[in-house]
Amino acid sequence: MSGTGTSDTTSTASAVTRVVIVDDQAMVRAGFAALLAAQGDIDVVGEAPDGAEGVEVCRSRHPDVVLMDVRMPRLNGLEAAQQLLEPPRGVVHRPKVLMLTTFDVDDYVYEALRIGASGFLLKDAPPADLIAAVRVVAEGEALLAPSVTRRLIAEFARRQRPVRRASRASTHAARLKGLTERESEVLELVARGQSNGEIAETLVLAEQTVKTHVSRIFAKLDLRDRAQAVIFAYESGLIAPGDQ
Questions:
Q1: pTM (2 decimals)?
Q2: Distance (Å, rounded) from C-alpha 98 to C-alpha 120?
Q3: Would you say 48 and 56 are in contact if contact means Cβ atoms under 8 Å apart?
Q4: CB 220 within 8 A of CB 183
Q5: Which of 90, 95, 146 lies closest to 117, judged by CA?
Q6: pLDDT tens digits for 59-101?
Q7: Distance between CA atoms of 23 and 51, rounded to whole angstroms?
Q8: Contact yes or no for 235/172 (Cβ under 8 A)
Q9: CA distance 80 to 97
């Protein structure tokens, strides 16, 4: 559980991914910790029983990925995730956050994705899915369970008040104009849940070229990861809820 505390996600994701588990159920924490610690490329560097302590642990341990339960005492997962993803001035470390939930459609999860959580995972998912999820989130490579995540975000978009939706659509549409035609095509495919490899196949491009486009899209639109890119695509009107 030692570390320099100064490494960034880019450097550690390619070697050992540092993980903190935040869940109010001790057995869940223990089970997840044992499973992940058995992987040679994952190091569980801390645990916490609630959101408040989870934020404190993350501030000191500097994990690459945080497994964050949605519903907890003292400080729920959404509030804790927001503190980690939108840290106060002077705090430079921002881990990637993977929300844990027992519901596949949860209001907390909608908002968590909006503030920058990298995805969500059902607590009863198979062990292999948890391991894969941590690796995927650490790499920022693709959304977790694309079909489910896409459905969740589409449902979120439908729930937005018309005035609020129109305001966001206008703001986002203006930002879309800063993308090239190719970048807009890539963003649309990202929003449809495609991985970089699938996008490369669809557009007949090299996968590295797609990665470059995705990086430029994130930079131009000030997006943290693919989850935020999906939300942006829906809210800007680039694709509509229910599109296939």
A1: 0.72
A2: 5
A3: yes
A4: yes
A5: 95
A6: 999 999 999 998 898 899 999 999 999 888 888 888 999 988 8
A7: 8
A8: yes
A9: 10
